[in-house]
Amino acid sequence: MDQIGSLLDGFGSALSPMNLLWALVGVTIGTAVGVLPGIGPALTVAMLLPITFRLEASSALIMFAGIYYGGMYGGSTTSILLNTPGETSSMMSALEGNRMARAGRGAAALATAAIGSFVAGTIGTVGLTFLAPVVADFAITRFGPEEYVALMAVAFVTVSALLGPSLLKGVASLLIGLTVGLVGIDGQTGQARLAFGVPALLDGVEVVILVVALFALGETFGHLLAGTGTSTVEPIRGRFALTGEDLRRSWPAWLRGTALGFPIGSLPAGGADVPTFLSYSLERRLSKHPEQFGKGAIEGLAGPEAANNAAAAGVLVPLLTIGLPTSATAAVILTAFQSYGLQPGPQLFSGSGELVWALIASLYIGNVMLLVLNLPLVGLWARMLTIPAYGIYAGVLVFATLGTFAAGGTVTDLLVLYGLGLIGLLMRLADVPVVPAVVAMILGPLLEQQLRRALAISQGDAAVLWSGWITKVLWAVVLLALLLPPLLSYLRARRATTSPPEPAPAESPAPRPPA
Amino acid sequence: MSDERVSLVHPRRSAVAAPVPMIAQATLDRASEEGLRGHLEHDRGTLLATAALGALMVLGGIVVLVNAASLRDSPGPGLGPAAVPTVVGVLLAAVGLVLAARAGWDLRRATKPEPVPRERVVRLAGMLVLLLAFAFLLPVLGYVVCAAFLFTGAALLLGAPRPALVAAYGWTLAIVVFLVFDKLIGLALPVGPWGF
């Protein structure tokens, strides 16, 4: 088993005292920032990017892994105690989790989330360990430019079709991201595109700037327009432990959530949030206590929470093996790799294998650290939730501008940030999801590059794009992803006319995440 | 309490893609959440924003197309530098047009008009002025002073009570960030005439 040997080497590197320290710093800061309401993992990673400025590549990536998992964990604490998930994927955790907290079972809710995250994260990382090299091998032997083109088409379509209220709005977001990605010097002819003679735009717009603009500035502007309120944190009562009954109901849900989360997350397609929705409805259907759903059913929290974390590990498969980010967080991690001159893709495992395996090993370590750290420290994290909104967003602005300045270093970069922030506000107000824009901005230039390469090899014959069975299958998936959602909603509409309409939610409105 | 029997999300509906309203209400209490009812499909604010976004996309599409037309083509077979921008520009304008047109159509039967209080718009404008001042004064006054004012100003615009305390927080945060990022990590932050 090749992987085991490489992984052990990775552990050897990740377990050095300095790297352990970086992992610890990463999970701690990641959790602390991720806990802050309204701040999801993508923004956490983007804002904390400057911290790794002076570190060498392996330490920086190890710290990043910690921030990634820490941010995921912190987000679920917020969903449970405050009912305000920082991103779509912890929406489902908020549903039952917050009900449990309101019923005075917050401690059990946090415990099942923490242990579920650990179980799912660990199994997911095991999956990553064994799946990633296989996928990389496959990609290296079978993937030419035309396969990449088809694969990116799949990612584009699924990201815009699965997120947000409508396909059209997803596509709108996608196109906005593509346009931002066009800015800069064209690699093949050296001509500037959409730079309008501004020197700072010749290098293009940094992904970090787009992420910070859409998530942090859009959010802050939205708060200004909405007017802020006061926070209501559910106090944690009781021991931070699971009863035997809780555990009996939790563990199958953890495993089912993981089984849904990892495979779907590791598909080279968008929608890492989908398994959390699937897991919730599955648990509801399988539960022996369906009447408790909506009132704090522990399996309704344990399943989605596990699915969420397993998907987070899964997302790293296409990212590391084909260089295909399918979530906003993955897009930011990709830029972190690029800032060290590393290009995620099939060559990464052969070219920088040591580094990748150290990163994967640190994912295992980070998971253990998070469990150990969070079981005793959960009270501290809960206290962070009492920081008022104005403090959080004023601080976010300070770090957002800092991150932008670190990425670009000019006043122009800040002005670009503000402009994109205003577009982000408009997108928020218009109910347009922002994640497709981030993914498209990263994938757009890659798609163009591969498309040009494919057509140059074929002497301009476009038929090469659907030659070979892999491309045919991928284009079929694209068609399916485009046609299936409208078909499903048509069927749903027909079913709705034959059954009575469901009553509107009464007491507490469903959680509403930013994107 | 009818609430006891009511589920928040219909499982069948949530299984494919949950409709996700985009405004996060990180720390909103229930009263403010009620005030935010606006952000659902088919309400006036969302439709107006959609129409505005659509119009902006049409404008952006035209800019992209004009820019693409000015690019010289590359020799040889394959795609030139203008091919992808042309496709993006056309789609941008087309999707923008459809969004704007649909929103405009729906506006005629939109639900309750809910104007945003003028005071909040003024606050948003104030925030933009503050951010612009930060960008232009940063090279002149240095990071610490600018970040301290950015924090204090933003917090006050977001409704913070007790300005003196907020200012103290702002200065502390700015100094800590400067020490950690400039001195410890080595990110060269701009300094003012006073050396920080």
Question: Can you offer a commentary on this structure?
Answer:
The complex is a heterodimer of chains A (515) and B (196). By secondary structure, chain A is mainly alpha-helical. Chain A has 19 helices and 2 strands. Chain A has one domain. In chain A, strands 1-2 form a two-stranded antiparallel ribbon. In chain A, a hairpin with a 6-residue loop joins strand 1 and strand 2. In chain A, helix 2 runs parallel beside helix 4 and helix 6 runs parallel beside helix 19. Chain B has 196 residues and is an all-alpha fold. The N and C termini of chain B lie far apart (60 Å). The N terminus of chain B is likely disordered. Classes of the chains: A mainly alpha (515), B mainly alpha (196). Chains A and B meet through helix 5, helix 7, helix 8, helix 10 and helix 16 of A and helix 1, helix 2, helix 3, helix 4 and helix 5 of B. Chain B: It comes from Virgisporangium aliadipatigenens. Chain B: InterPro entries: DUF1468 (IPR009936). Chain B: Keywords: Membrane, Transmembrane, Transmembrane helix.
| Number of contiguous helices of chain B | 7
Number of distinct helices of chain A: 19
| Biggest sheet layout of chain A | 2 strands, antiparallel
Series of H and E elements of chain B = HHHHHHH
